[in-house]
Write a structure and sequence with these properties.
By secondary structure, the chain is mostly helical. Helix content is about 70%, strand content about 0%. The protein is built from 6 helices and no strands. The longest helix has about 40 residues. It is extended and about 80 Å long.
Length: about 190
């Protein structure tokens, strides 16, 4: 007895008569009954939503990688500080081990959260800028990185906001130089070869 006995014939003679010999071996179901869905892509390549969807698909991995990287770097810095502090204090045994764990966990969490928050700011601003400009280019990266620096240092005064903007702009420039294939350095490299 077939699962789809009302729709499909079970008998081989009926299959030949009706031309349904291409049944799926898993469900005894003819895939030709399923209509082909169009379009195959969610958004056309150059639509407004396509560029926003690309940015939003990248946002969560960027935030996660930033948090994990910050936790690792902060943990190493905490281990260094902990080794130095416990050696100067003359601690040994279980007390030293507990202090080292405290240093590693505190510094790792602090640095990880800081980088995670910066990545959240950057991703949110970049998504908004991409949506407003309706273009996907390196200008969005520069605007988002600069605005992230300003926003992150906004509670520390104008001078700190300017330094944060400069740091964001510098990091965006370095990132663009490394990853963008249409920049001056990559063109010079291809001309030289």
């Amino acid at each position: 007895m077939s699962l789809f006995s009302d729709i499909l014939p079970i008998n081989k003679n009926e299959e030949k008569k009706h031309g349904t010999a291409n049944l799926s071996p898993y469900l005894n179901f003819d895939p030709h009954y399923i209509p082909k869905m169009q379009p195959e892509f969610l958004y056309p390549d150059e639509s407004h939503m396509a560029s926003t969807a690309r940015r939003s698909n990248v946002a969560l991995p960027i935030i996660g990688m930033s948090f994990m990287t910050g936790s690792g770097l902060g943990g190493m810095a905490g281990l260094y500080k902990g080794l130095r502090a416990t050696t100067l204090a003359g601690q040994t045994g279980k007390v030293r081990r507990t202090q080292l764990i405290n240093y590693v966990m505190k510094q790792g969490t602090t640095t990880g959260c800081t980088l995670g928050i910066l990545a959240s700011f950057y991703s949110s601003i970049a998504l908004g800028v991409t949506w407003l400009r309706d273009q996907e280019d390196s200008t969005n990266t520069f605007i988002a990185a600069t605005a992230t620096g300003v926003l992150y240092k906004s509670t520390a005064g104008l001078r700190s906001m300017g330094l944060g903007a400069a740091a964001g702009l510098t990091l965006a420039g370095l990132y663009t130089l490394i990853t963008d294939n249409d920049n001056i350095w990559s063109k010079a490299r291809y001309i030289r070869m």
